[in-house]
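Onboarding guide, step 5: your first structure request.
Type a short instruction followed by the sequence, for example:

Predict the 3D structure of this protein.
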Amino acid sequence: MTAIAPLPVLEGPVLVIAPHMDDEALGCGLLLASHPRKEQLHVLFVTDGSHSPEPSAGASESMRRELALTREREAREALAVLDLPAGNVEFLGFEDGTLATQEARLRTVLVEYVRCIGAEQVFVPFRYDRHPDHLAISHVVADARDEGAIGATVIEYFVYSRWRLLPGGDVRNCLRRELLRQLDPDAMPAAELKRRALDCHRSQTTCYYDWQNRPVLTRELLDRVCSEPEIYLLQDPARPGRRVLARARAWVPIAHRLEPLLKRWKDRLSGWRGR
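The system replies with structure tokens like these:
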């Protein structure tokens, strides 16, 4: 199998758009840890993260506000571990889980921010991610790039790459390898920094509330993402949608809709057993 080309050192301002606090470290932690010019790195958190974790009956407004403040604090701690300048971190505060219903406003805000910092590379979640907030950001930025509102290079990162419904279990193996770039965790300090940054997100990596029976991010997942390479997909306007797929072109779009449904049923079953 053809080797994946390495991700080159990025020149100019770099913007990582994270739907939720922890997505930046899961998908781009090695990049943020190893980049030689920290002043060129920017992270934009789009939602307030206030619905994760959340009890099955929903959360009160006060609980959501408290969790949003906690997650912002954790994100700032995590990016301090990665040595990003505090002034290069912004929080938009959209309500967690609502981006798909606010795409016009989302596009306006994101385009304005990209232009404001003069980003030359913009990192967004994978176009077939499983979370609707992730998908909204990916689609809005791709559309803005295609229409000339954004002139930056757009690169997709992976938060959820392991899919139970795909042969081999990893969606990255279905993509055209010439469009992929890889960043290896060879420099141990970078991999260790990524893990330390993720550990700062205690609301996600521990049973933060007494009603939880497992954390949002399991230790198994953290061990895996901190030991494997980070893979990135270069957006090519000539290859929209499934044209980036080398195989399973019909199945990947279907599987990415089915996976969240299966996860919700699994979580409900797990919650029922916990009660």
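Each response can be followed by summary notes, for example: The CA atoms of residues 76 and 128 lie 28 Å apart.
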